[in-house]
Amino acid sequence: NATIGTKDYSHYTDITNNFNVEWNLIQGVVLRGRFGYNKQLNSADQFLPANHTMFYTWTSDALKFRRGRYTKSNGESSYFNGNISLNYTKTIGRHQVFANGGYDISERKGDVLTYIVEGFPSDDIDYISAGSQFSTDNKRPAGNPSIVRDLGLFGAINYSWDDRFLVDLCY
Hints:
1 helix; about 0% helix; mainly beta; 8-stranded antiparallel β-sheet
């Protein structure tokens, strides 16, 4: 199989950006913001020529014309997330109070398109459009789009007396 023109490769491009900002509004009060973005592009190609061992059992006339298979996949995914929070802290004598609250938001999208073409009469012809038909097993290109979105709120209040007794309230 290694010497008959088999192809099997994939590659991807990934871009990521993260941004953080912190602003001290007044003493003890801090506003924080974060934003992140990721984009990925994927591609994969696999060509199995008609002489590949996968097709040795395909001996009937109907199957002989289906020998040779090219599988191609293209995918794209993106992800972004952001959050903003406000933090407050105050210490008076033995008492310490800390409070924070904020929200998170995110979105993840993805899409993959795969198609399989079969019927390559020659091992030297490995371009996908040279195949005679889409795979009869899959009948048509297959796709898998997805999207997930999240939104969340959070809050917490913490009290400490003399660094010995603690109370936490969270939402």
